[in-house]
Amino acid sequence: MKRVLALVGIVLFAAAASGAYFIFDRTPEGPEQPIAFYHKVHAGDNQIPCMYCHTNADKSPSAGVPSVKVCVGCHIAGSASIEPSQVQQLTYPIKGQGPERPDWWYAEANKLLGYWQRQEAIPWVRIHQLPAHAKFPHDMHVNAGLQCQTCHGPVQEMEKVYQFSSLQMGWCIDCHRGDTPLSPAEQAAVEKRSSYVRKLAALEAAGSDVEANRKRWPNQRASTDCVVCHY
Fold it and tell me: What pLDDT is stored for residue 99 in this prediction?
């Protein structure tokens, strides 16, 4: 009897541990980064477009992490024509100036200068990580008309960026089937650009029977075939 109870305990523990792996922590607190980069300051206060820094978001499956060169383009004047080893100080922020924690901002941004002088990549801590068997092509979603905030949340209000959406399979499928609300502008863009919507309309125009598809998922925006995300 003890052996049976022990076996049951092991199974329950394994199940609990397995389930815990899939629990999405919605606590809005991101990890510590090597430099205190506040999206609220950049994307919010200064209204820098997301794709100014994440330049690959509409061209590649990966949105990309901005290089040190992109950062110093704003923080070090003339960085394109000055040897990194010759740069001695930041152009912005200036120590001792600014309305809020100026010296703290300067100290954090000054770390950027060190990476630039050493020609080292900033070792940012990744926030959004999908399993290796699942793919999320940023370019397809951006070009379909979705806003970055739809998946990543109000990054323009975040200090430390955190994972806003679960990124789980059901979350993706809900959006593909049209169960996740979008803004009117996004919805109109998706209806116009989605390859699934256009293909269904083309089949219908050619005389194919698509009634079953429309009846089951009348608001479907994209395919839910396995190969779409697991290619």
Answer: 57
pLDDT at residue 88, as a whole number: 85
Which structure tokens are listed for 140?
């397809």
Dist CA 31 CA 14 (whole Å): 28
| Interatomic CA distance for residues 229 and 231, integer angstroms | 6
E strands, 34-100, are: none
Long-range Cβ pairs for the range 24-27 (8 Å, 24+): 24/163, 24/166, 24/167, 24/168, 25/163, 27/162
In this structure, are residues 118 and 27 in contact, taking their beta carbons and an 8 Å threshold?
A: no
| Whole-prediction pTM | 0.81
Name the DSSP class of 30: P
Say what the pLDDT of residue 26 is. 57
32 in Cβ contact with 23 (< 8 Å) = no
Cis (ω within 30 of 0) for the bond into 181? no
Q: What is the DSSP letter of 84?
A: G
Considering only CA atoms, which of 192, 211, 215 is closest in space to residue 203? 211
- The whole-angstrom separation of Cα 25 and Cα 168 is 12
Structure tokens that stand for 160 in this block = 């430390």
For residue 125, the model assigns a pLDDT of 94
Place of tokens 């629990």: 23
Q: How many angstroms from the chain centroid is the CA of residue 218?
A: 28
**Cα 72 to Cα 229: distance, rounded to the nearest angstrom:** 36
Nearest C-alpha neighbor of 180 from the set 193, 197, 166: 166
Backbone torsions φ then ψ of 80, nearest 5 degrees: -70, -25
In the DSSP assignment, the letter for residue 111 is H
